Amino acid sequence: MRHLVIDGEIEWTDSNSDPSRFDFRVIRPGHIFEIKTYVAQKRATIQRIDFNLWGVARVLHTFTGVRMGDPRNHRDWSLTTAWALSMDGLAAGLILMVLSSVYMWWDLRQGRWLGLLVLGLGFLSCGFFVAGLRWVAHNAHG
Amino acid sequence: MSRRFYIITRDLHLYLGLFFAPFVLVFSFSVFFLVHSWIPGVGKQPSASFFMRKVVVLSDIESLDGRQRVDSVRSVLKQIDISGEVGFIRHIPEAHRLVVPVSVPGRETTVTIDLEAQSASIAQRTTGSGPSLNSGEIEQ
To answer: B39 vs A68: CB contact, 8 Å cut-off?
Structure first.
């Protein structure tokens, strides 16, 4: 990759039955590089796919460097690790924001009952999407 | 006027915030698991089942496109009591078949409609609720 001046997260594609070929994919927000290497001929073909701004935004929603149920792929680009850790930081910040907000509301003392009712409705509707939707679909099957 | 606006904004902020607090918590906690691709229980073997049913399929379903095809497929899904989000419908013209993926959180169903035999084979896979929670689309 250094030789090809390509930087990004390596993703191993499906195994190739041809031993003279070595194929892989390099992903970075904005670009995907499909690299087909012909080892015997010391030659490589590179297909570069460019995304527009929406494509970059979409990739950033799923760009973690690892995939569920795929043990072959690990994070191997430092920027992917930085991105994943920043997602962790954002999530931790959101949890802190919610918990501190609930604490401050509780300390207000006024509007506790209405607040409890609204919070309860929030838990009910959220629970519906997390668990209830599955239960409804299961019961629809009989 | 500005005082009233302030009070309405403050109350809306408080109560809307309280209502959405559980959603934000679920979202935030799931981020840790999904970003690092580690979900307890997902490594276990998913359960799968397979069965066939007779269905009534519109004769012109093969010629339909887009939303019309999805609506026709929905009528078939209703006959076999399958509900959920319909993904990309694959048409295999030479075999006169439609392959329809249907998802709900925790279960993936693939319905293969045989248009000549007027039957549907249904393959179901239980995946647990984790992978579907933060995913708004179905990957093919």
So the answer is: yes
